[in-house]
Design a protein that fits this description.
Radius of gyration: 21 Å
Strand content: 15-25%
Helix content: 25-40%
Strand order of the largest sheet: 2-1-5-3-4
CATH superfamily of the largest domain: Phosphatidylinositol 3-kinase Catalytic Subunit, Chain A, domain 1
Shape: globular
Largest sheet: 5 strands, mixed
Structural class: alpha+beta
Oligomer: single chain
Order of helices and strands: HEEHEEHEHHHHEEEEHEHE
């Protein structure tokens, strides 16, 4: 199942922004099949090589946008698509720009070395949530870290599994804490692309998948089977904590002590799982290369 998820790709159409075209000839659009688990930055070298002759003198600072929203380099491609686009937005048409970088809207442009470092930091966070320590990632040889990153950018599930075998990316109880999963939620209003990233709710956190755990020291022990915690239960709790709830009318205020989350749809790896789907099952099938399960949520 994991290998199948890593095979999923999104057809992408890249057009150069008119303001960056400094030649008489108009550049043709570029087409790619981009793995869902990969990152948009992997397109930059190919785009620059094929568009360089249409640009003016450098330096060129690349960034991509979708319907005027700058796209963040550190979010996997599939998550960005699930959050911002619709299934019929294929091929996914993005605009690439090499000037006017939107520093106010998102962090500075990340060269691949910085993006790799951010990926590894995310992986450390995920392994700590899963096993109670990030030591196995920190102890990886530089060559092994590079192999892991390269496997993600190529969407090579077999190479990733081999490189990540020592990391034990499965939930365990540690120091009396229940087994937990690293989950990231990105949520926005349904029906359109937000005007800025301020319109996107973001949560990165551990989600306990059982109520108890054995008292242990050091690295976590394997949990006893998958938990019954469902995707819907996890999302309902996170959205309540974020106060993304329905507001009762005056006549209902005293009758509903626990507010209900706003109606929403959740997308994981391009699919809309049933709310009762086991979170542990989703994680084992759809976790990203950085060890997190990403869920795109559209609020009604």
């Amino acid at each position: 199942m994991v290998k199948e998820a890593w095979k999923l790709k999104i057809p992408v159409k890249i057009v150069l922004a008119d303001s960056d075209v400094l030649s008489v000839e108009q550049p043709p659009p570029l087409y790619f099949m981009l793995p869902r688990v990969s990152y948009l930055y992997t397109l930059v070298p190919q785009c620059l090589a094929r568009l360089d002759r249409y640009l003016g003198a450098g330096p060129h600072t690349p960034w991509l946008e979708f319907r005027h929203l700058p796209l963040r380099w550190s979010v996997p491609v599939g998550v960005l698509f699930d959050l911002l686009a619709r299934p019929d937005d294929l091929p996914w048409m993005l605009t690439i720009r090499f000037s006017g970088y939107p520093l106010a809207a998102m962090p500075p442009c990340m060269p691949e070395t910085s993006l790799k470092a951010a990926f590894l930091n995310s992986l450390k966070e995920a392994t700590f949530i899963l096993r109670g320590t990030a030591g196995r990632v920190m102890e990886m040889a530089a060559g092994s870290q590079t192999e892991l990153w390269s496997a993600v950018t190529r969407a090579d599930a077999a190479a990733y599994a081999e490189a990540a075998a020592s990391l034990q990316l499965s939930p365990g109880s540690w120091r009396g804490r229940p087994p937990s999963l690293p989950v990231r939620i990105l949520a926005c209003e349904a029906g359109g692309v937000p005007g800025s990233w301020r319109g996107v709710f973001y949560s990165s956190r551990p989600v306990a998948i059982s109520r108890g755990g054995d008292e242990t020291e050091g690295e976590g022990e394997d949990s006893a089977g998958p938990s019954g915690l469902s995707l819907g239960q996890a999302l309902d709790g996170i959205l309540r904590e974020a106060d993304l709830c329905e507001r009762p009318g005056p006549e209902e205020a005293d009758c509903s002590p626990v507010p209900s989350p706003r109606p929403y749809t959740a997308t994981v790896c391009g699919l809309t799982p049933a709310p009762e789907t086991s979170l542990a099952t989703l994680y084992s099938s759809c976790a990203a290369g950085d060890g997190f399960l990403y869920v795109a949520v559209h609020l009604a």
